[in-house]
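To the wet lab folks,

You asked to see what we're planning to order before we commit. Fair enough. Below is the target structure as tokens, and below that is the sequence we designed to fit it. If anything looks off to you, flag it before the synthesis order goes out.
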């Protein structure tokens, strides 16, 4: 119950049911609940009963009708005490004088304490705290009385101040809220000042102080923020000289060509530009209510030389919608609305050198209804017209982030291999999970679950789990580069496999029912890569080594009250980690660098070896002439300080003052 109203629901058919409310159904002498009868009405005292019927449930609302304001003098219809209402109610649902259900309500409602009187409109004026302290006398703590030792208290008379005039509070608490700062020339008498203080002190009034006043911002200049708009082309002829890897593909209207893609946060971006020579395969979840169409497929694209090419679109009907649609767990309504939507779009860009020659688009359509979740798939692949295979052999030969890692099985006649992780679907079982390739540069973690019985043999379970994990790695080698040739073994690195069980480790057979040890439930894939150069400013990355290892766990059967004829779920996972290392081993540290770390600029805030860096040609923060002038002036100040610290200069200075 919240406030003077309470809601409840009567489940079932409410036709012919009479609802009533009874006030104070508890016997005051015995404290027991009185026997309920169906002779009540829908109003009792200050309470009203309202019923909203429905097909399967009826909403029952009990509300209080009295005023909850606290009584003022000579006022009626109000609460005389803070505890305004303390009553017990009983709601009955009867049919033919037979009680079907009852609800007991104990109401304790306090009076509304909101202030309803007149409010003064005289506002306190607060001074500008930048130039005047808000509290000029912090030690003035008692209103209308003199605070002892608080000499700035206006309530203290001169006679009272004489009693503690020598014991007044000092500092900010004693009222000195704007003390002179140490850099003022008037602070010379404070002592402990260096000899050069008169030459570098500040002449200023106390109105300009670090304790009060605004900061001095100096002159400001308007920053030149680059515009996010695409610059318009001046010449109507050839707009481009060709695409480079990573350049956005442009349309005829000089706009980005967009296809839904995944962002760094894992969310689907519907208007993501397509980058040249960067393949992707993404899946986005949507429903019929949130479904939106993308760019129309009659948009012409810039080939890279100023010419425009039309998309070649082929429409097909989806044959197995169960692979894309997830049924909603909520109840289905009587009338279900459906809509013809796009299930998948596959784009194939045929390229030659820096230009796009042809675009083939395959679109799969299907029906999406209310209460269903659709997994849309969008793919883009760039192929070379001069290549005989489906693998592109142009552009940057190294791996780019987001591209699949190439794998090969050199022990088979067909050398094509695969390096995958799981993509669970439905309940997440391994029997229904599909595969997705490992993407370069993207650490990933996936898994699925196995149904295991309580009588499962541990040796059989280890073999089954190992077989499931090995099905992800159908390869013996991994390509160093994105264009590694199958005919050249030097273009591939061998996968280093660390078996889950070696000959020196004894594997427990598991004599306890429902418990198995040393289950290799985790597959770890570590890929070491390095940057070995750049092509047109884009880093060229190569894979140096690949290691596969297993992590074992102790599996225990989990069940409820009954364990017979039930199965437990065993999760198995696969993790991919990319580790970047330098292309060349770092230069070893010398004995001087290891012993004298204060000269290491990477481990200290002060870098003495770069003391004169602003005077070199490598410093581009200011013109070289200004840097040289400032450097000579600094050298003059150092020389002047050295001369002034000489004893004979002090004697000469004193003799000149005499």
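Sequence we intend to order:
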């Amino acid at each position: 119950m919240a406030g003077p109203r309470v809601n409840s629901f009567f489940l079932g058919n409410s036709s012919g049911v009479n609802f009533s409310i009874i006030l104070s159904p508890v016997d005051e002498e015995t404290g027991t609940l009185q026997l309920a009868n169906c002779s009540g009405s829908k109003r009792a005292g200050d309470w009203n009963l309202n019923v909203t019927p429905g097909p399967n449930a009826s909403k029952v609302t009990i509300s209080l009708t009295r005023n909850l304001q606290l009584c003022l003098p000579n006022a009626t219809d109000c609460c005389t005490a803070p505890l305004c209402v303390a009553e017990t109610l009983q709601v009955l649902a009867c049919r033919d004088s037979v009680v079907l259900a009852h609800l007991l309500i104990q109401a304790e409602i306090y009076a509304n304490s909101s202030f309803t009187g007149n409010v003064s409109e005289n506002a306190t004026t607060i001074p500008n705290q930048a130039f005047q302290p808000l509290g000029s006398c912090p030690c003035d703590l008692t209103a209308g009385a003199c605070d002892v030792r608080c000499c700035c208290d206006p309530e203290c008379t001169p006679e009272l101040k004489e009693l503690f005039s020598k014991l007044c509070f000092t500092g900010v608490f004693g009222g000195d809220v704007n003390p002179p700062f140490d850099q003022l020339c008037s602070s010379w008498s404070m002592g402990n000042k260096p000899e050069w203080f008169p030459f570098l002190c500040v002449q200023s009034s106390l109105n300009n102080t670090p304790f009060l006043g605004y900061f001095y911002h100096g002159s400001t200049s308007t920053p030149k923020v680059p515009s996010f708009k695409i610059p318009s082309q001046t010449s109507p002829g050839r707009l481009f000289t060709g695409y480079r890897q990573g350049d956005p593909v442009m349309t005829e209207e000089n706009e980005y060509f967009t296809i839904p893609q995944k962002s760094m946060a894992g969310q689907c971006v519907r208007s993501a530009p397509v980058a040249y020579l960067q393949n992707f395969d993404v899946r986005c979840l949507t429903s019929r209510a949130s479904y939106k169409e993308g760019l129309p497929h009659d948009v012409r694209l810039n080939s890279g030389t100023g010419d425009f090419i039309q998309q070649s679109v082929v429409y097909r009907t989806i044959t197995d919608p169960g692979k894309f649609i997830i049924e909603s767990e909520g109840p289905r309504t009587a009338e279900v609305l459906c809509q013809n939507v796009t299930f998948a779009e596959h784009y194939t860009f045929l390229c030659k050198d820096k230009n796009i020659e042809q675009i083939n688009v395959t679109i799969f359509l299907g029906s999406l209804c209310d209460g269903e979740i659709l997994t849309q798939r969008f793919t883009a692949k760039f192929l070379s017209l001069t290549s005989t295979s489906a693998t592109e052999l142009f552009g940057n030969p190294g791996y780019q982030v987001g591209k699949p890692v190439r794998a090969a099985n050199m022990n088979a006649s067909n050398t094509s291999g695969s390096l995958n992780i799981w993509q669970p679907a439905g309940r997440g079982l391994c029997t229904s999970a599909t595969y997705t390739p490992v993407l370069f540069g993207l650490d990933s973690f996936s898994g699925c679950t196995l149904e295991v019985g309580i009588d499962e043999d541990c040796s059989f379970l280890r073999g089954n789990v190992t077989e499931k994990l090995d099905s992800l790695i159908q390869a013996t080698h991994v390509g160093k580069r994105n264009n590694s040739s199958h005919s050249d073994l030097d273009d591939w690195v061998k996968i280093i496999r660390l078996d889950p069980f070696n000959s020196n480790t004894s594997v427990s057979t598991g004599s306890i029912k429902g418990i198995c040890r040393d289950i290799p439930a985790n597959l770890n894939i570590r890929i070491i890569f390095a940057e070995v150069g750049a092509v047109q400013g884009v880093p060229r990355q190569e894979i140096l080594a690949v290691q596969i290892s297993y992590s074992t766990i102790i599996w225990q059967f989990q069940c409820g009250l009954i364990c017979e004829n039930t199965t437990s779920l065993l999760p198995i996972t696969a993790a991919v980690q990319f580790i970047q290392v330098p292309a060349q081993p770092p230069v070893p540290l010398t004995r001087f660098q290891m012993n004298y770390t204060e000269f290491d600029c990477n481990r200290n805030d002060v870098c003495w070896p770069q003391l004169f860096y602003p005077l070199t040609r490598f410093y581009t923060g200011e013109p070289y002439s200004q840097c040289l002038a400032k450097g000579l002036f600094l050298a003059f100040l150092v020389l002047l300080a050295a001369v002034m610290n000489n004893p004979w200069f002090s004697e000469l200075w004193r003799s000149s003052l005499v």
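Structural context that might help your review: The CA atoms of residues 294 and 415 lie 39 Å apart. The first helix runs from residue 158 to 161.

Thanks,
Computational group
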